[in-house]
Structures are given as structure tokens and as C-alpha cells.
UniProtKB/TrEMBL annotation:
The lineage of its organism: Eukaryota, Metazoa, Ecdysozoa, Nematoda, Chromadorea. Residues 26-176 form the DUF7596 domain. It comes from the Eukaryota. InterPro entries: DUF7596 (IPR056017). This is DUF7596 domain-containing protein.
Length: 345
């Protein structure tokens, strides 16, 4: 992989880096997200062979589903068609591919002078960098065999990133819009407490921090939310010193829900009920050192959460796109706050 400080600087404004400011890439010999077995990366450097101009991270959920966490392209090439060559990097290349630009042209390839058959069916030598990233990452994760019939890739586009939404949709193949509605909200901590305190007081479960003694119970509960095996991913997050986990339970082996938080952000809340979700949210807000808290709300599941849109300091809608179909292997009614930017739910 390219020198980590250079890449870290390049992706610092990406969605994933905002959600997890450090720990995405392996810096200073610290564990990183991309070192987990089912995470792969693709990097494109400029003609100088050093300057990153595009970077992507994709996680393999299972053999037929992957989630594109980062798909960042430098403004310089965001709407250019380019030819790239692959830079061989030994064994690491199977998980972290690197390409170099050898030619670039502004805009899409002009097909007006091509014969009709070639204009429609021929593979373009020049592609948008978003296509280069997606093609490489798909090959490294779920593979391309039966891609159109069985496999699905998901990507989230948030706020200002939407300026290139048409390229991801029309050029890269993310043609299916999700029916779920998500929004990134920044809300005053006191507003959160006022909104959820009453409902949270109805919850009879006990909230404690996630540790090695109850981690097994948390993983068991996660399996009731999704069919995906996320044990390595969740163990990494809980082991990250930036992140605190909270579990609501009625005793050993009886988990009602859990949540993950980091500084001024709630990363995820998964629960059986609105009361449990409310109690976990107020617990996090009460322990947060920040005056404002940011999270990705799963709209339409929790009426209290939906009502926060009018009270939030900032609201950014999320456009979730798929290559083939919406995701049905997640029980969305259990997802109050989604782990967007790091995980598919």
C-alpha cells in the first residue's frame, strides 16, 4: 500500500475518515480497519507515481454482498476519463491494488464516431476513476462471476459528496436507489436528552460498557440483526481506544440492544425496542464531552428520531445506491442509528 500518511491526508474529508478519524489506515503500527480480512483497498496515483488521486475501500459482507465505504476521487480527475496501468506490489496486491494514470481526457469518452455495436458493447479503455475503483474493489471482494445475477454492491453518498452522484449512478452501475431513508444529523446534546429521556425511563434493562465478559452476548445479539458475520469487525471497533460500546441487558445472555460511540458521534444503535434505543442514546449523550452529537438516523423506524429533523443543527440526507437490489439481510426495524461510513448497517 502507498505511504499511509499521504493516503490519510488524501481521505481525511471522506465519510469514513469523519466517522473514524484515526484507525482507518495502519499508522504508527496501530491496528487498522483495512487490515481486517474482508476489507480491500484500491489506490490510483498520478503520473508521478506518488500522488494519490483516487482511493477506495470495500468490505465484503458475504460472498454476494459488499459495501463501498470510501470512493474518493480528487477534484482534478473527478470528471475525467483515464487510462491506468496496474502497479504490482507482491502479495499485498491481492488485497490492496495500486494503479497509475498514464493518460487522461476531460469528460466522458466521445462515442459519436464509433460504429453502433462498439459504442454500446465495447469495453472503454478510458474510464472514470470511480469505475476503476469499483471494478478493482469488486474483483478483490465478491468477484465478478455472475455479478449481474447474484451479487450486489452498496454505496452511500452524503451531502456535498453528491456532486458526483450521477457518475456513481450512471457510469459506475449503482442504479438502484434504496427505499430506506437515512440522514446524518448533528443535534444539541440537551435536545437529545430531552427527546429520549422519558421513553428511556421506561426501559427496565441495565446499561453497562461492552467488555470481554459480555462481548460474546453482544455478538450473539448482532446475529439477530443481520445474517452477516461481523465478529472480526466488531472486535476491532471495541478494541479501538476511540470507541466505547454500551450494552443493554437483563442479565447474562439476555441482551436487549447495544450501541457504539466515539467522542462527538454515535456510531450505531441496535435494539429490540424504542425504549431500549432511547436509554442507550441518553446514556451516550450523558457521557459525551461534546455539546453537539452527530449520527446517522434510520428514518421511519423511531418516531422520536424522525422528529429530530426539525430540531437538529445540521441535517444531511443520505443517498444509498445499489448495483442490483436493496439489502434484505438486515432487520432494519432493529437499527435506530446506522453505522454508515463503516458498515452497511
Amino acid at each position: 500500500m502507498l505511504a499511509q500518511p499521504i493516503l490519510s491526508s488524501f481521505i481525511e474529508n471522506s465519510l469514513t475518515a469523519k466517522v473514524l478519524p484515526s484507525g482507518v489506515l495502519p499508522l504508527n503500527n496501530n491496528p487498522s480497519l483495512v487490515e481486517i480480512a474482508n476489507f480491500s483497498t484500491a489506490t490510483v496515483v498520478d503520473r508521478d507515481g506518488q500522488t494519490p488521486v483516487a482511493f477506495g475501500i470495500m468490505s465484503k459482507c458475504n460472498s454476494k454482498q459488499a459495501y463501498c465505504m470510501v470512493g474518493k476521487v480528487a477534484d482534478k480527475y473527478s470528471r475525467h476519463s483515464v487510462i491506468v496501468e496496474k502497479c504490482e506490489e507482491g502479495e499485498d496486491d491481492k488485497k490492496n491494488a495500486i494503479f497509475k494514470i498514464v493518460d487522461a481526457t476531460a469528460g466522458p469518452v466521445d462515442k459519436s464516431l464509433m460504429r453502433p455495436y462498439h459504442a454500446v458493447f465495447a469495453e472503454d479503455e478510458k474510464k472514470f476513476l470511480q469505475v476503476t475503483l469499483a471494478d478493482s474493489l469488486i474483483e478483490q471482494t465478491v468477484g465478478t462471476f455472475n455479478m449481474d445475477m447474484e451479487k450486489n454492491i452498496t454505496i452511500d453518498v452524503v451531502g456535498a459528496e453528491g456532486s458526483n452522484l450521477d457518475i456513481w449512478r450512471d457510469r459506475t452501475g449503482f442504479v438502484v436507489t434504496d427505499s430506506n431513508r437515512f440522514a446524518q444529523m448533528t443535534v444539541d446534546k440537551n435536545v437529545l436528552l430531552d427527546t429520549f429521556a422519558n421513553e428511556g425511563s421506561k426501559c427496565t434493562s441495565t446499561v453497562s460498557t461492552i467488555n470481554k465478559d459480555n462481548m460474546g452476548d453482544v455478538l450473539d445479539f448482532d446475529e439477530t440483526v443481520t445474517m452477516y458475520n461481523r465478529s472480526s469487525y466488531l472486535n476491532y471497533l471495541i478494541g479501538n481506544e476511540q470507541i466505547t460500546g454500551f450494552v443493554a441487558s437483563y442479565g447474562a445472555g439476555s441482551v436487549a440492544g447495544y450501541a457504539l460511540a466515539s467522542k462527538d458521534r454515535i456510531l450505531a444503535v441496535y435494539t429490540e425496542s424504542t425504549e431500549t434505543a432511547s436509554k442507550l442514546i441518553t446514556t451516550i449523550a450523558s457521557n459525551s464531552p461534546s455539546d453537539e452529537i452527530t449520527f446517522f438516523a434510520n428514518l421511519g423506524v423511531n418516531t422520536l428520531m424522525d422528529g429530530l429533523q426539525e430540531k437538529a443543527v445540521v441535517v444531511e440526507l443520505v443517498t444509498r445506491l445499489h448495483t442490483r437490489t436493496r439489502n434484505v439481510q438486515v432487520k432494519w426495524n432493529k437499527v435506530a442509528i446506522a453505522n454508515i461510513g463503516l458498515s452497511i448497517f
